[in-house]
Amino acid sequence: MDEAGAYYRRLNRPLLNILPPGLGSVLDVGCAAGELGRAYKDRHPGSRWTGIELDAEAAALAVRSLDHVETGDAEALGDDSLPGAPFDALVYADTLEHFRDPAATLTRHLRLLKPGGVVCASLPNIQHWSAILSLIGGRWDYRDEGLFDRTHLRFFTLSTIVDFFRGCGCVLEFADPLIPRPGAPLIPHWDRHDAFLEELERLCGTFGLAFDRRRFQAYQYVVRARRERADG
Question: Please, what is the end-to-end C-alpha distance for the chain in angstroms?
Fold first, then answer.
């Protein structure tokens, strides 16, 4: 399998671990090759997953694991009934940051979610120390994946993640930071990690800003929220 195919076959295990048990029907928005749904259905065989995926080759793979797969643009998904709707859960595994208008898209998708249904997502954190260090060095170099993925259209921090979900009419249950181990791939300058965080703490103190070390260490957040308003 080529590198792109391997990317679509990755399992987002942190997101899998925050999905509530026993979900009846799930809409996986940007389902890739369906690995997340396959793993969840292995744990909970009664669950039924509908996926929507822009990449046709990945969607063809997802058909093997999910109950129904639509090939197309999730931002163009209308209010027409999909198999399994209304859903118990909406899942966004590293997808919201790729949307042109994630707030409008999520708000529209919430109409497909049962009142009180759950929204689970993983989003990158542009407040990560390596991104700040790159900016200080005058660089914003797009890459094939990671914080500077060339297909990212929107960027989030913990504060804007909270604002985003609340603004869409969701009650946020938690946003847990995913902190990579030292030496993790995609993150340069690990040898400067501790020293740079010390400088960030000093700068925050100088400018009267609260310093939360985890906000600079989190590479991503996994988020769980609930639909609040019946009208989405």
Answer: 40
Which residue(s) pair with 87 in the sheet? Answer: 113
Q: At residue 229, does pLDDT exceed 60?
A: no
What is the spatial distance between Cα 41 and Cα 18, in angstroms, rounded to a whole number? 14
pLDDT for residue 179: 95
Compute the half-sphere exposure of residue 104: CA atoms within 13 Å on the CB side of its CA. Answer: 8
What span, in angstroms and rounded, lies between the C-alpha atoms of 44 and 197? 42
Predicted structure pTM score = 0.93
The region, left, alpha or beta by phi > 0 then psi within -120 to 50, assigned to residue 114 is beta
**Residue 152 or 3, more confident:** 152
pLDDT of residue 232: 40
CA-CA distance, 26 to 117, in Å (whole number)? 10
The CATH number of domain 3-128+152-186+213-227 is 3.40.50.150: yes
Omega prior to 14 cis, within 30 of 0: no
